[in-house]
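notes to self, project folder thing:

trying the whole complex as one job this time. last attempt i did each chain seperately and stitching them together was a nightmare. two parts in total, labels are on each line so i dont mix them up again. if this works i'll redo the older ones the same way
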Amino acid sequence: MQFRFEKRAEPSRTMLYVTPVAAVLLTMVLGAIIFTIIGYDGIGAVREIFFTPLTNSLKWQDLAVKAAPPLIIGGGLSIGYRANVWNIGAEGQYIVGGLAATGVALLTQDMSGWWILPLMGIAGIAGGMAYVAVPAFLRVRLKVNEILTTLMLTYVAVNILNYLVFGPWKSPTSFGQPQTVAFNDSQSLPYIIEGTIVQAGAPIAIIVALVAWFVMSRTMFGFQVTTVGAAPKAAAYAGFSANKTILAVLFISGGLAGLAGMLEAAGPFGRMVPQFPSNYGFTAIIVAFLGRLHPIGVLFAGVVLAITFVGGEVAQTTIALPNPAVGIFQAMMLFLLLAGDVLVRYRIVRAGATGGREAI
Amino acid sequence: MSGETQARLEMAGITKRFPGVLANDDVSFAIKPGEIHALLGENGAGKSTLVKMIYGIMRPDAGEMFWNGAPLKASSPKAARRLGIGMVFQHFSLFEALTVLENIALGMDGGLSSRALEAKVREVLNAYELSLDPHRVVSTLSVGERQRIEIVRALLLNPKLLIMDEPTSVLTPQEVTQLFKTLRQLASEGCSILYISHKLNEIKELCDTATILRGGRVVDECDPKQETSKSMAEKMIGGDLKAVAKGTERTFGEVQLAVNNLSLGRGHAFGTALKDISFSVHGGEILGIAGVAGNGQNELLAALSGEQHAEADGVIELCGRPIGTSEPSTRRKAGLCAVPEERHGHAAVPDYSLADNGILTARHRRELVRAGLIKNSASHDFADEIIAEFGVMATGSKATAGSLSGGNLQKFIMGREILQTPEVLVISQPTWGVDAGAAAFIHQALVDMAAAGSAIVIISQDLDELLALSDTLSVINEGKLSAPMAVENASIEEIGLLMGGVHGEPSLATKPEASHAVQV
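result (full assembly):
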């Protein structure tokens, strides 16, 4: 029996929502098979990675902590991706945002006051924006593809980070450890729920998602961004400047990545260390796509990805699954989602079938 | 053509279904050897689908096709060509940077040395008195010459049936005359021709038989020479055709749009530069700009809409106000609305709802946005208003633009601009690919709008349309605009020559060689 693709008259809204869910479910099935074949407890791996973080209430606060950064970054990326602007170097902007916030912290080491944290936040946002400004201007002035420049600058950021923590920023009291001094109380995020490790990142992530949703669905700016992405010629005809839109969405995504960097530095890390780049910037790409570039969808996707992060740690201790396994699961999810996307615009029909009866 | 001969091609009960549409419903007709057979119908009547099945691109769901009496089983265009079925598509597939000969070589199924191929090409060119230099680069050729490449390609295969899909939509009247001569010669040699068109005059002039399709069904088969254009049009649309009612006493107001020495470089490698274009349009006046596609029409529209800026502000004046370097939104606010030729992805976003497509251009003049926020109900009301006033067939303001048929989307776009009551409306190809009923509606709306005092510029390749609507007519060729002429005094020969590239005062244009110009 042969099958072929047939274009749908209209993109399927059902498939738009079904495919992300299907991608996650299929990832579990394929993941279980693959890890069984290579000699691990495949079913156990899926259970620990995808379900234990949900069933074990002790893990919920970990979810909130792990979900926040990819959510904040993914919210920004999804706006840019709507405009067909592919910033895939959010990891670099996240690092530079964290570094900028650290810089403020080091300058205010002996000070205290409520104003230090907001200042670090502003520095983080500014750092992320400044770092994306390079690809942004290369793109609008010289039409340099932002996919390459943003990605390459990520590796530059890692080296800047290493230079600083191994060099000028190294704490004098760290016994040679490459790390900065610990942030003081005025430089650290408060715990918002007593007795947990949940800091300000989680509520900020929710606020970012809600604001992004409002901007994208109700404002002229959101309309402009979507139009530039959906039909560049129509956007020019409507009077929307493509270059201004590209700059705006790059600065938004860079700024939010920088903010996430500040929240991580001033939150879970509490100082700057070489382990600071934790691939949140890359995970956020999966979050943006899994969430269908819709701010509320991103919210759900961020939680799913956080589950895999937390679950990965669980699986490491309970069934000795190596940590990179989580990356395989995450990549599989993105891969299956993108592959499944074809079903939004096409349907599968049996070759020779006439009507839509046997269509999927 | 005796009625007794074996049909070259016979279609018997052909049915083809697409999701949600019955494209062809029990279609039957036959083409005799040497017959020029018209396939006539509106957009979406099923002409293209039918032809694609003959040419092996698609297969029918039901029914049979016979080729010289034997079942036709063309599973691919290549197989169809082997049988002797040639096709000239409406949109050419040519490489602009290659020569004529290289393009022909690329399209050949069998390998042939370039010397042998050139000899064969020259043979065909001589036999049919086609003027075409095999060594010219395609980008330097006119549209008519490009079409000749496609015809030569088809003729090299000694076709027994030649399918021509809307061949004259981009030709000047003189080129049409030349094409018809070639087709008649071919037919006299026994080649059957299936001629697809919605231009009734041409079908009357050229074709022996016409099969009229409507909604996928054959509604009539007739001898076009025995019919009038009106009677065929009515069969085609299945109703009465209303002529455009244009007031006889037309008075013009002040100049509302003035273009002074507009020159623009070519936007991309195969674009056309605009050279020193000047014209003015008064309130109540309709200026028609004729011309063969690709002579600067799109560039002119972009310069007027604001997508391209002129060199100086004063180059374009709207009611006396310089706007040559203003953004599109500024121009719209000031009263200039424009509609580009391409509807999908330029004049409208296919994935957007009609309400959102309304916001695209009408957000300022219709106040659909306040303080950066979209007024949701106002934008849906506006879309509903367009749907109601312009008779757009759509499920409502939430329907996507892409779900509308070409004619309905065009009605929506026209409604969107006209309901903004701009002082100046510039529109490219207002009825391109639009069915006759919708075209008549759009024409009337434009005439009414001019009567209400707007200045209108219509850029079109359809001369009939321009002659029916315009008060004044200019021709654009290679980025230059001819001096305007009053439509009453315009002669088809002169316009045709200007379209073909003879510049200067219309009265100085050299005498046309073609004595039998196309009737309009």
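what i see at first glance: Residues 69-289 of chain A form one domain.
need to look closer tmrw
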